[in-house]
Prior knowledge:
alpha+beta
Amino acid sequence: MADVLIRPGLFIPEGELSWRFSRSSGPGGQGVNTTDSRVELSWDLAASEVLSPTLRERAVDRLGGRLVAGVLTITASEHRSQLRNREAAEARLASVVAAAIAPPPRQRRATKPTRGAVERRIADKKRRAQVKRGRGKDFD
């Protein structure tokens, strides 16, 4: 196909990708038994020079459970045609890698509730307790 665009300015060259095709168990009618429409797209993340050492370390750390010997494999078999499965695998690879190299979210800073919020909460609790106290024992 072509290079896989991860984000503007960052792409995986076609030479670093390896493809495997096999018969799919998904949709395809009679042709499902004869065509190799299932696609496996593999990329050696650990050996790739595309990512900087920092991004590579972050990606290996986040994708550790999906990597086998440093290789990330994406499988696609939801479409009937091999071409559409190839496109789906490329899109999935791009989204997985983009999520893996994204910067970590900002650290949350603990805050205290405002005085008004505390007062409203206490007032609501007192109101609820008054409602419950009003129920009960007066059964004349």
